[in-house]
Design brief:
- The protein is an all-alpha fold.
- The protein is 62% helix and 0% strand.
- The protein contains five helices and no strands.
- The radius of gyration is 14 Å and the shape is globular.
- It starts with a helix and ends with a helix.
């Protein structure tokens, strides 16, 4: 069971980080071109990770635990980046 779970995670990670997936799922082709804190894979991962708490707490926790970065972004920056991804 564990190997199957890790295979799924690996496949999802490869898909999220692929340039083709990014191009298919962004609204504006100029979005997520520059190397910033909120890259396309990070925003998609944050969307998949959002559970129950407020947006700012979830953003802060994601940066602290997953990215191990003390400098988080604001919820407004996350929402602005999220707008660039097609539903």
């Amino acid at each position: 069971m564990n190997s199957f779970f890790y295979q799924i995670l690996r496949k999802a990670s490869d898909m999220i980080y692929s340039d083709e997936f990014r191009k298919r799922n962004i609204i504006n082709r100029k979005s997520f071109v520059r190397n910033r804190k909120l890259t396309f894979p990070i925003v998609v991962s944050m969307i998949l990770n959002m559970i129950t708490k407020t947006a700012q707490i979830e953003v802060y926790n994601f940066f602290e635990t997953v990215l191990e970065d003390e400098k988080s972004v604001t919820k407004q920056a996350f929402f602005k980046a999220r707008k660039n991804i097609s539903p």
